[in-house]
Specification:
The chain has 197 residues and is an alpha/beta fold. Helices cover 34% and strands 23% of the residues. It has a seven-stranded mixed sheet. Helix 1 packs across helix 5 and helix 4 crosses helix 5.
Length: 197
């Protein structure tokens, strides 16, 4: 199936495309369609924000649209930054500032209490008005300093099995990441969803 990806984030788009193409789907970007759509994420949950993005782009294109809303939940911060992950330090998408703020807030938190999870929710919006949601999570810990040069966002600080997401290859990350798990769940739900369409 072909989807439009409701994302202006090149890293997120590359991940979604890699995983979905491996499942036999194809993904068009907003740029490839010549669209500049930037939905306002006014939801209070990942599910709400993913649906807002998918529905707005679907309405603009008339095509099946897939969106991801994702973020980091840190237990010592009562689940923050959560849906505010991309704008945690103020400006949207300033990875360095977001990571520095996170480290500052956790500076006195010992290793055993630095537990966290990445969450991803995938939303599909169809021109018919039907929609589908799938959630994925990956548990880990927040490090005391960034490690690795790959990935994006909080990847240099998010550790699983003593390696940060930024130290993993794309293939390694795609086997354990929250986005991979959400897309895997999405892939499981999709056939039945399409049968009902």
């Amino acid at each position: 199936m072909e989807f439009v990806a409701a994302s202006n984030n090149p890293h997120k788009l590359a991940e979604m495309r890699r995983i979905l193409e491996a499942m036999g789907h194809s993904v068009k970007s907003l740029a490839e369609l010549g669209l500049t759509v930037d939905p306002e994420e006014t939801g209070t949950t990942f599910e709400e924000n993913a649906l807002i993005k998918a529905k707005e782009v679907c309405a603009a294109t008339g095509l099946a649209t897939i969106a991801d809303d994702s973020g980091l939940e840190v237990d010592a911060l009562d689940g923050a930054p959560g849906v505010c992950s991309a704008r945690f330090a103020g400006g949207h998408g300033n990875d360095d500032a977001n990571n520095q703020k996170l480290l500052q807030l956790l500076k006195n938190v010992p290793a055993p209490k630095r537990t966290a999870r990445f969450v991803s929710v995938i939303a599909l919006a169809m021109p018919s008005g039907a929609s589908l949601l799938a959630r994925g999570q990956c548990a880990g810990n927040i490090g005391f300093a960034p490690a690795g040069t790959g990935g994006f966002g909080y990847d240099p600080l998010f550790f699983v099995n003593n390696k940060s997401f930024a130290q993993l290859s794309a293939a390694e990350k795609d086997t354990i990441s929250h986005r991979a798990k959400a897309l895997e769940e999405f892939g499981r739900q999709l056939p039945q969803f399409l049968n009902q369409e």
